[in-house]
Amino acid sequence: MFDPDSLKSFLSVIDTGSFVAAADRLRLTQPRVSQQVAALERELGVVLFDRSKRPIRATDAGRALSGQARRVLEVMADARTSMDPWRTRAQGVVHLGSYPSVSAAFIPALLRRQAEREPDVKVVLTEHSTLELDAANRRGEVDLYLRPLHPEPPEHVGSLPLWREPLVIVHALDHPLSRIPDPVPLTEVAAHPIISIGRLEDADSADFEAYRVFRERGLNLVPVQATDQPQTLVSLAASGLGVGVTNWLATRTADTSDVRVRVLEEGLERRVALCWDSSRPFTPAVRSVHTAISEADIPEGTSTLSTLNHERDLSSHTL
């Protein structure tokens, strides 16, 4: 009979192209993954990978097995799910990733309700920037995480859209933009130095919403400074360094007494989703936190984001 752990190791090597990367994803040692794949090859009497190639490539037999292996794990996951009515409570630890503004505006109420509903599930909160959250997910350090839908989530990441929130600007009280009525046109903002989300001179930051909306309107965004911390962005704007462009929740969770928070023209927004590694099945504990997030009230000042054409890889992810 197939060992499910060996099948998981086999599929992780298929998905990552490397025994080392597969081990990182599964939080195992590389020798352990190699042993499990070798045991599967011995049981089947076939070679599953061409180890002379870099990245490692599946043989014809390996490619044929991959679809069958995924179906076997899905059937096992369905069998476990069918036992849910006979389980009293979900139990275990769930590592939840988040970024600063969501951690302040959404997570506290969520954790309180989750503790009341599932007291045997311990949620460990991990905070990173968006791109660092993707890396933590890839390393298996988070089970679920909240992130904007831009930049696009990596391949093999499932997502459940949660809400949309407007992009806003933040500027000093005496800034020249104070004379421009709301909503402020982006062309007016572009005439001033900009403080953006992300990291300065980081190519990956160019996929964030602020850069994207500037590009879509034929404007070039070259920020004078960038940060992932809402209060830092507000303080930089208050000092007169430039005009901050950020998401609505970032300003709701910072002290904005020394700045003005302004609405930009319609249609400039951030979309937020719940994400996870779609190659890792959900445990009952992870499923319970996923359900709690999907049913939670969205933050004030945001609006529901339709799941149509956005939800990815949600089915068959329960152990």
From TrEMBL:
<dbReference type="InterPro" id="IPR036390">
    <property type="entry name" value="WH_DNA-bd_sf"/>
</dbReference>
<feature type="domain" description="HTH lysR-type">
    <location>
        <begin position="2"/>
        <end position="59"/>
    </location>
</feature>
<protein>
    <submittedName>
        <fullName>DNA-binding transcriptional regulator, LysR family</fullName>
    </submittedName>
</protein>
<keyword id="KW-0805">Transcription regulation</keyword>
<dbReference type="InterPro" id="IPR005119">
    <property type="entry name" value="LysR_subst-bd"/>
</dbReference>
<dbReference type="InterPro" id="IPR036388">
    <property type="entry name" value="WH-like_DNA-bd_sf"/>
</dbReference>
<comment type="similarity">
    <text>Belongs to the LysR transcriptional regulatory family.</text>
</comment>
<dbReference type="GO" id="GO:0003677">
    <property type="term" value="F:DNA binding"/>
</dbReference>
<dbReference type="GO" id="GO:0003700">
    <property type="term" value="F:DNA-binding transcription factor activity"/>
</dbReference>
<keyword id="KW-0804">Transcription</keyword>
<dbReference type="GO" id="GO:0032993">
    <property type="term" value="C:protein-DNA complex"/>
</dbReference>
<dbReference type="InterPro" id="IPR000847">
    <property type="entry name" value="LysR_HTH_N"/>
</dbReference>
<keyword id="KW-0238">DNA-binding</keyword>
<dbReference type="Pfam" id="PF00126">
    <property type="entry name" value="HTH_1"/>
</dbReference>
<dbReference type="Pfam" id="PF03466">
    <property type="entry name" value="LysR_substrate"/>
</dbReference>
